[in-house]
Design a protein that fits this description.
Elements lengths: L1 H40 L5 H4 L9 E6 L4 E11 L4 E9 L14 E8 L3 E6 L13 E6 L7 E8 L2 E14 L5 E10 L8 E9 L3 E11 L2 E9 L7
Antiparallel strand pairs: 1-2, 1-12, 2-3, 3-4, 4-5, 5-6, 7-8, 8-9, 9-10, 10-11, 11-12
Protein name: Lipoprotein
Keywords: Signal
Organism: Clostridium ganghwense
């Protein structure tokens, strides 16, 4: 009788142990699957940098500036593939010539921003550069860490020639709604016709808005002319 009871007890123990092992194995597999799913959805690009731009397709931004200049752009497409975030803006420069100036095609603007793990690249997609755009058609405009004094250099192509552009974060601040603002200055030396053979531009980016101010020197009949435009931000009731 004792032998039978002993066998039954051993069988019960083995059954319990098997159930525990099977349960642990299933739980382990579930955790592995969960971790794999989390890895698939994890963002590789910098979410800190992404916050400096609007994220909703259809967002409209209106700018105005020097000599009655104005343009409107729309966030036409957002592409998020985990590795990078691509924002495509399309718009048009305001025609103040009453039809006597450039053709409608020459007033179109297309700008793309690509956010990766530590930087934001700005790319002009319209075939011909517009006078209101940077003379640098492709450049890194923001780079981590976002802190005053941060600098970086990059090779850029301007009118078919290669130059070195030096960019510096000159100011980091917040507005009255606690939105982060970063101001950069980019300098390219060795370009004739610009003051002291040096081209300079200033860009200001704001959390949730993207580019809110741009300033540079443009050449009108080879004469330097200071140019600037800013984002129109309607006052909100507090």
């Amino acid at each position: 009788m004792k032998s039978i009871i002993k066998k039954i007890s051993c069988f019960a123990c083995v059954s319990v142990l098997t159930a525990v092992i099977v349960g642990c194995g299933a739980k382990g597999k579930a955790e592995v699957a969960k971790n794999k799913d989390a890895a698939k959805t994890a963002k590789v690009y910098s979410e800190e940098l992404a916050k400096y731009f609007p994220a909703l397709e259809g967002t409209v931004l209106k700018y105005s500036g020097t000599a009655e200049y104005g343009h409107t752009i729309t966030l036409n497409k957002v592409t998020d593939n985990q590795e990078s975030l691509t924002l495509d803006f399309k718009g048009e420069i305001q025609d103040v010539s009453e039809g006597e100036g450039p053709s409608k095609e020459d007033l179109l603007l297309e700008t793309q921003y690509v956010v990766d793990k530590d930087s934001v690249k700005e790319i002009q997609k319209n075939v011909k550069r517009r006078h209101s755009q940077s003379i640098i058609r492709e450049q890194v405009v923001l780079k981590l860490p976002i802190e005053k004094g941060k600098t970086w250099s990059q090779k850029v192509s301007i009118d078919g020639k290669e130059y070195t552009a030096e960019t510096k974060i000159v100011e980091v601040s917040t507005d009255d709604k606690n939105k982060n603002i970063v101001k950069t200055e980019t300098v390219v030396k060795g370009i004739e016709s610009y003051p002291e053979n040096t081209y300079k531009e200033i860009k200001i980016f704001k959390e949730g808005k993207g580019l809110v101010e741009f300033q540079n020197v443009i050449l009108l009949q080879k004469e330097p002319f200071e140019f600037r435009y800013k984002l129109f931000e309607p006052q909100e009731n507090k």
